[in-house]
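Trying the structure run again after the queue cleared.
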Amino acid sequence: MTSNILIHPLAVVAMADHFTRVNLGATLLSADSKILGILFGTREEGGKLVINDSIEVDYTEQSGKAKFSTASLGSKRDLHKEVFPLQQVVGFYRCGDEVESNDMQINSDFTAYQTHPVFLLLNTNIATGSKEMPMTIYEATSTGFVEQSYELQSSDSERIAIEHVIKNKKDGANAVAAHIFSLQESVNSMNTRVGVLIDYLEKVEKNLVEPNPVLIKQINNLLTQLPVENGEGVEKQIKSETNDSLNIDFLRTLVKSAAALDEISIMHNKSTEKKNKRI
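Done. Tokens:
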């Protein structure tokens, strides 16, 4: 049976990227924050809905209930429309494993932008070995959300880009994840060494071992090099430096991807020109 909803891979990749950045701490949001965004697409003849893209949007949250920022949504919509004038806001997405009561309220708010918005739920708790697409699309009725069937639709350029990403995937992790893993390993290693020093000093204090003047002097020199700040100040500085590092790493990865896509685009254009000349 032919589905009335078509979704492009670009929309799925953008949602997955949004979830990954929040989950790994590469945004200002905490890792357990709600992950919300809007869907852009078109309505074709016959009522068929095509979802072309997805973009994250700011929101406010009170008592566990999320509400999209009208200013942020309007700004993202207008900027997107300047580049893709035929596309419009067709719905919203959220990352999670089940529908929540707040989703219906968000859907009601969305009627200001789309008479019949769709709600896409991206399931991030994927079972090992699962081959099904981890997402469900709903439309609201008077009795609640009703699941809708959908199909994936991709253009030649999208297929080429996806194949390129898969071929350049390293050890199942992207550059951002690898960088975070490296930082985590460094912190764990440092904690182990600090633990050894603390254990030694505690034993010296309890007269369980003989104090070593040279070692104690080295520990003292190390402590004098540390910044004199309270715990909150140090934590804030570490978070700021970590976010800066993650942003730089993410931008580097983004630039590499853009360069690769540019090369693919040039190859595609050359191939198209050759075909046109033959015709």
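The chain is about 50% helix and 20% strand. Worth checking whether this holds up in the mutant runs.
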